[in-house]
């Protein structure tokens, strides 16, 4: 059972080390991804870093999620790119981002976060597994030194037609031995750190494996550069963070929104698009993060929408691209041991400190090392045992899960989730159809008795099955209709029963309505009145 927000806390003193490790690891992953998403969105590179800082510090401060980490996310790339192109200027786009934040706060107060309650767990797990598969596939080129696709893409088929097959072909043709060596060493470190010797060692268990990977990657590349400078990784094989040469140059990296564009209708169109996509992705990510939470806490989705809105307002005001809750960074943090929002605050603080004080150090990190971290994260999101577990739960759980995974791989994140939801909805309707009533047949003194027990919630979807059951009642039978457990009966079903009652005597069928108090199931007080009203209607029919 998930704990309530009464148990929410910013810091758990018993897990400070785990939270710090989670913040450090997510920070290491976030730096290149912030830059890559900004690049793919057609925005200034530093705007991605700004969004990452705001996501960690501002959203981290206001969010009620213990483990979610926010920042720029790949699902927003298309929306941001289209908005910048339609508005014609980045400052105008920043105004749209600011207004999108205002809309998100409004959605939070309107309690729109309830939408997340309608996503089945099989679809959420499918989203996680789909992202995991894509993380694995998308990191493979980086492991061999092909680093032109630096964005955190969540689609195997990109708009320019350069798909994953083309990417693998290009990667094989540009195999880089140094990058491959760093990747092999990095993966070995990550796997060894999961072994009991490292996890139980008093010193090593407190050292984040990702930090060791990054340091090792920098060291290997540096040593190779000393002995053979031509072999060392350079350029887009490394993180590329803007390096200001003066305080004034650093300030120039920030951009203010163009408030004179507030009369431009396209600004509001862009704001609505950003708000809707960012909100939906945040809700999905929050649900997925809660699924990964070892403590099974439940986040207030309405409070999260408000926190995301505040974050986008601040990001838009100081020159950042839109942000949302990001499952990849959140899962990396959780896997590293994070248990409270201290990890998000550490993540944002490190981003801020390092872009100010250590940009040249960050620019020495090889992509191959970071890709290794993401590959292991992807594996943990899509382990075989997850597929096996859902398969054992039955086709109603397994098929929506698999369809969601495949649809995400073939299209994009939101489209894949939508397709998965349609499949899940089919099984929900099917379950409703099959379980709306139960029929028992027995003999009493040579006469056939048929008892039809109605379910708790009998919707219009049950009309067809009810018609079929009543049409097949043989002549001279006694039919008992038991609605004592029903909290709601749709009027279409009521009319079907009424029509059967009016014609039953023609076939010498005796109709009996049962309403035994002992058969009542406990129901919420809010539905008692509705149930009693329907019971009175059935009584009147009799």
From TrEMBL:
Intracellular or extracellular location(s): Membrane
What is the membrane topology here? Multi-pass membrane protein
Q: Name one GO cellular component term.
A: membrane
Superkingdom of origin organism:
Bacteria
Query: Which Pfam families does the entry link to?
Result: Sulfate_transp (PF00916)
The record places domain SLC26A/SulP transporter at 18-392
The UniProt record lists the keyword Membrane: yes
Keyword Manganese tagged: no
Spans traversing the lipid bilayer: 20-39, 45-62, 90-110, 122-140, 175-194, 206-227, 267-288, 309-328, 340-358, 365-381, 401-429
Q: Where's it mainly located?
A: membrane
Q: Which InterPro entries match?
A: SLC26A/SulP_dom, SLC26A/SulP_fam
Q: Which GO terms describe its biological process?
A: transmembrane transport
Keyword field: Membrane, Transmembrane, Transmembrane helix
**By what name is this protein known?**
SulP family inorganic anion transporter
Which source organism? Answer: Larkinella punicea
